[in-house]
Amino acid sequence: MDRMLYVAMTGAKNIMLAQAINNNNLANINTTGFRADLASFQSMPIDGAGYPSRTNAVVEGTRVDMSSGPLITTGRELDVAVKGDGLIAVQAPDGNEAYTRAGDLQVNSAGMLLTGAGFPVMGNSGPIAIPPNQKIEIGADGTISVLPIGQTPNTLAIVDRIKLVKAPAEALTKTSDGLLRPTTGDTLVPDASVTAQSGVLETSNVNGINALAHMIELSRHYEAQIKLLKTAEDNDAAGAQLLRLA
Predict the structure, then answer these.
(1) Is 89:163 a contact under the CB 8 Å cutoff?
(2) Which pLDDT band, with edges at 50, 70 and 90, does 155 fall under?
């Protein structure tokens, strides 16, 4: 009886973990550049006395869905969409370099170029600072040019270049701050083949319909595990009743 309870309890627990991952994806369906998390299940045989007939489905971890999200045209000069599988380098809260697809950039009161989430954007030699200007332009290679205050329109000055990098999806992991980092812990080098498009934003790659369908599916699996727990309880009560009659 305890074996049935353990298998059902483990199944319910891991389905709840998968549901939490799926719900987080749904909560970020409108987050710019968000990459969905995918729960990775693994079959874990249970060793012990008797036949090896019990196997648990356990959430081994998560991986990141690096497929591209839909693009929307904004016309805003600081909105940038990275093409292909490129990434924008930013400074994480811990001071280390991390990466994102969110290109909703902004300049704060101190002149620092930040993402919409507030992470400093990295350039050739560190976080990018933008001087006072009348206009900002971001080129396809990430080069940032500004029109200084009081200057004529043909006097654009190059300030810095956004660090654009590239890495295969299997080499990246997403941390709790929503940023991507190489699984090896290394810092990625700039990749000249990565290009960006100004005036365009990439939205979340979460498919709302699929995520809702998956939520219903996980709920039904959870209900099945709870019913199994109830069956184990009923069997235990029936066994105890038989012992009393004996």
Answers:
(1) yes
(2) confident
